[in-house]
Amino acid sequence: MSGEAYKRGLVRGWCDAVAAAAFVPTINDADRPADGAPWFTIVWEPDTVEPIAYCGVAMETGALNVIVGGEPGNGDAAVAAASDAVVAELLANADPQGQLTLERANGTAEHSSGTADRWYRLQTPLAYRYINGGP
After folding, report:
1. What is the pLDDT of residues 24-66, one digit of tens each?
2. Residue 111 domain-assigned?
3. In the 3-class helix/strand/coil scheme, how is 74-122 assigned residue by residue?
């Protein structure tokens, strides 16, 4: 498997293995957490795709946005702690084929309007580099 399916499948496997919070694959999936425990999802945000060799080999860079949510009206401590733990667990992974590298965590930002939203959320972009092996 190569390309987009490889990249997404690899990261979904890493997310499923995270112990710090439940992974909820919100992209094209109706699942939502039933209780108020912290949970997380991911959103891909590619930035550039640049050819680096002949035969269609290209390097994509961007951010894998890790969004951690919890019940609103309870402060940010539980969601912030879960965010720190989820990000650390994801950054500890390595692609056995060496195509995808999570390089670093960037600054965490609010991703909600506090109690005005169903969930209180924090978002941390993880800079990534992905090399598509060609055809």
Report:
1. 887 656 666 667 789 999 999 999 988 888 777 899 999 999 9
2. no
3. CCCHHHHHHHHHHHHHHHCCCCCCCCEEEEEECCCEECCCHHHCCCEEE
- 14 in a domain, yes or no? yes
Strand partners of residue 65 = 43, 125
What is d(CA 114, CA 110) in angstroms, rounded to the nearest whole number? 9
The answer to whether 67 and 61 have CB atoms below 8 angstroms apart is: no
pLDDT of residue 42: 95
SS3 5: helix
Indicate the angle between helix axes 77-91 and 3-16, nearest 10 degrees: 130
> CB atoms < 10 A from the CB of 121, how many?
24
First to last CA, the chain: 11
What pLDDT score was predicted for residue 28? 59
| Alpha-carbon separation of residue 61 from 16, 24, 130 (angstroms) | 23, 24, 6
Range of the domain at 14: 3-28+37-98+117-132
